[in-house]
C-alpha cells in the first residue's frame, strides 16, 4: 500500500513537470489507445492551467532532463518506440541529449580506487578532469605506461537511483495494462523490462568491455572501421579503461573537409559498417549517433560508447536481408512470405493480403530516384503496416530500425546525395548470395545433417522422458487430479490477497485524484 502511494507520488511529480514544461502540447493522441490518449489530453489541459507563461515550444526533452538520469534513459528508449508514443513524441525525444553536470574529481578518484582496489597514482601516471558526463557515467583522460587512455567511471549511487525509478516505471506499466486493455498490445510491461535489461548491462562496465572485445574480433578485417582497445588490467564493474581516441568528431563536417577527408567515402563507410554488423555478425552498435563516431588521421571511422548493443538471430538477419532485397527487386510476394516464414504475421491473414499492403509501400517509390528513398523511412512504414496484420512488437527489430534511422542521418549529413540502395547493395547482396544461394544451400544442408545427428543421439533420452509423461497422464486419467494440503492453502492465501488488492486499488484511485487536484492548484 505505502509502496503504491510512493509510486503514485513520483508519477504525479513527473506529470507536474511535464505539464509545466508544456511537454505534451505537440503530441497528437488521435492514434493512441484510449487510456494513453486520455492521459495526453489531461496533461495538455493541465499545461494550459499550470504551465510556464513564457512558453515558446514543446519541451519534452527538457522535462525528461529535469527529471533525472532514469527519465533520460526512458526518454531515449521511448524515442525508439513510435508504436507506443506516436511519431510526434518520438521525434521530440530523439533530440534528448544524455548530458549532465560532472561529479567531482575527488569522488571519481575514490570510485576508481574502490573499483580497482589500488590507489589512483599506482594505476595511472596522470588522471585529468572529466571531459564528458552522461546520465550513467563520465569520462576522464589519463595516461599510463606512455599511453593515453580514456577512463569511464560510473556515477555514485546510480544503481540505487535506477532501481527505485524502474520500480515506478513497472508500476505504471502494470497499471496501464490493468485499466486499458487496448494498451496491452503495446506490451508496456515488456517495454519497461527491455529498458531494465539495457540499463543493467550499461551499469556493469565489464559487459561493455566484453561487447567491445567481441566487436573488435568481428570487425578485425573491416577496412576503414576501428574500435578502441580495452585495457583489462585497469577495468572493473564500475570502471572501464580504453585507449584514447584522437580524431575529428564526425558531426564536424567543416573540420573533416579541412583535414582532406573524402566525405562521400565516409558516408558510405558508416552505412556499410552498420549493415555488416547487423547482417554478417548479428551484433551491432545500437547507439551510432554523431557524438559516438570520430574520424582518425588515417580516415578510419572510430566508434565509442558500447553501452547499448543490438543482437539479431539468424531468423532476424534473414528477415532483414530478404526484406531489403525484396523491395529492391519489387518482389512483394516474397517479402510477404518472409514475414510468414519468420512467424511475425499470424496465419489468420493471407500472404496475398499482406503482399498487397507491402505493394502500397513499395510502388510509390518507383518514380523516385534512389537518392530520394530513405531505407529507414521504408522500415518505419513497414512496421506501421504490420500493426494492421497483428504483428507483435519485436524489440530487436525496433532497436534495429532506430539505429538505421540514426545511421542514415549521419551518412546523409556527410553526403546529402548518398544513394542508400547502391551503398547497401554490396553488403546485402553478399549476404543473400552467401546464405540463400548455392553456397547457402550447402551450408543449410550441413547444419540440417548435424541437427539430425544430435536428434538421433538424444532419441533414447527423449523416448524415456515421453514414456514417463504418458504414464503420469494415464494415472491422472484413472485416479483424477488431486491437490495436496499445501496447494489448497496457497490458493486460499492468493484469493485473500486478491480481495485485499481490490480494496487497496480503491484507496489508490482516491489518492490519485487528490494528487491530480493538488497538481492543478499548486
Detailed description of the structure:
By secondary structure, the chain is an alpha+beta fold. It has 3 domains: 1-97, no CATH class; 99-244, no CATH class; 252-436, no CATH class. 63% of the residues lie in helices and 9% in strands. It has 20 helices and 10 strands. The chain has helices spanning 2-20, 34-50, 60-67, 69-78, 82-94, 105-116, 120-123, 158-179, 188-202, 205-218, 253-258, 263-281, 314-329, 332-341, 351-362, 375-388, 395-414, 420-436, 438-479, 485-521; strands spanning 126-133, 137-144, 147-154, 225-226, 239-243, 248-249, 283-285, 293-295, 301-303, 309-311. A hairpin with a 2-residue loop joins strand 2 and strand 3. Helix 1 crosses helix 2 (34-50) and helix 13 packs antiparallel against helix 14 (332-341). The radius of gyration is 27 Å and the shape is globular. The two termini are 25 Å apart. The relative contact order is 0.08. Mean pLDDT is 79; it is low at 501-522.
